Amino acid sequence: MTEGLLKSQLAKKHLKLTRQREIILDAFLKNDHITAEDLYSQISNGNIHLGLATIYRTLNLLCELGIGQQRHFGDSKVLYDNVLNKKHHDHLICIQCGKITEFECPDIEKIQEEMAERNCFVLERHRLELYGHCKDTEKCHAS
Amino acid sequence: MTEGLLKSQLAKKHLKLTRQREIILDAFLKNDHITAEDLYSQISNGNIHLGLATIYRTLNLLCELGIGQQRHFGDSKVLYDNVLNKKHHDHLICIQCGKITEFECPDIEKIQEEMAERNCFVLERHRLELYGHCKDTEKCHAS
DNA sequence: TTTGTTGCAAAAATTTTGCATTGTT
DNA sequence: AACAATGCAAAATTTTTGCAACAAA
Prior knowledge:
The structure is a homodimer. Chain A is α+β, with helices and mostly antiparallel strands. The radius of gyration of chain A is 18 Å and the shape is globular. The relative contact order of chain A is 0.12. Chains A and B meet through helix 5 and strand 6 of A and helix 5 and strand 6 of B. Strand 6 of chain A pairs antiparallel with strand 6 of chain B, so a sheet runs across the interface. The structure holds a DNA duplex.
């Protein structure tokens, strides 16, 4: 299913389906947000060796195909967000444990449209990140 | 006035007021958002030479003092946002001309609080960026 | 067989750090 | 005099690129 997807997406651009691309897509889709380096480690742990450059190239390719999206979240490293079969969403990031939760909020998006218009601006896309403390684990319950 | 501010802020931390720090603060406050590299160029153009490392160190210091804040905006370079005497604000970024406009929106912030709560999350801060096309100049009016 | 892809190492790009020297308090 | 800051060059970090060998169409 995903293999088929990848293949057809690649075919459109006259690109080739390689074993490496299959491996990377598979690993990528098992995560919600991951860095190139971490994906590299995950794949290495499965005793498959791929060059880090290939990971970067493929991750960027997945973004072009609309399967991934780059995010920052204040870190120096880029996180690749798996957006396959997902609607647009924003993120809650726990400052303490690093947990990332996705959410949607049509109400906010509506107001954003208004804000854009008020500023003579045609909105294309947005990025909203909420940082705070999650109450999920003991170490994360808010003070 | 700003000199006094800088001096007193530094004194609190047993840090010293140097000519370089004055120059950098002055230049920084003339901008709303700027990269370290660009600030370096601006200062160089005034025929003053400072090391780039000093710019970085001082910009980071200004962030610790609450005068600046780091931002990403999707670029690889960090933008330093001048927040002296400003309330919290978010940003509209023009994809075409790069223009950055600041805005506030209490309505959105209210909903953010609700979203955080609904997700068992204590909100600390947020980051909202709207990307699109501004209608200000000919080259930027939306299609 | 043609063209795209990989792996590696080297390069790029951005930011930080070590250290001797200099400047502030 | 004591301590912090600067400048420079070197290092660190993250990502991209060139190119020869290889694999897919």
